[in-house]
Amino acid sequence: MSDVVSPMSVPDALRVYVNERGVSVPHGSVAVDAVRALFPELAAEVDAGRQRLTDSRGLPVSASQALVGGSIYRVVPVREQMNEATS
Questions:
Q1: Residues 30-65: pLDDT tens digits?
Q2: 3-state class of 17 per DSSP?
Q3: How far is it, in rounded angstroms, from Cα 40 to Cα 11?
Q4: CA 28, chain centre distance (Å)
Q5: pTM above 0.70?
Q6: How many CB atoms lie within 10 A of CB 1?
C-alpha cells in the first residue's frame, strides 16, 4: 500500500461551523474567514475588536488561527466593552 495521497482524495475546502451553521472555506483560511463567509457584519465586528471568537468549549480563539476541518467557533461580544456600556 502506498503512502501517496491521491489528489482526488483531498477535498477542495474545509468544513467548519460558526454559530451552529456549517460553512466550507478554502484550505489556508483562518478563523475570521469562516465567520466572514457566513456573517460579514460579525466578521467586521471581530476585526474591530467588538466581538471575539471562542471554540466549542468557550475558550478564546485568535481570529487569525489557521482552520482545521470540523472546528466549531462562536462569535461573542467582548465583555470589557459590554461592562463599559452598562456603567
A1: 999 999 999 999 999 999 999 999 999 999 999 999
A2: strand
A3: 24
A4: 12
A5: yes
A6: 3
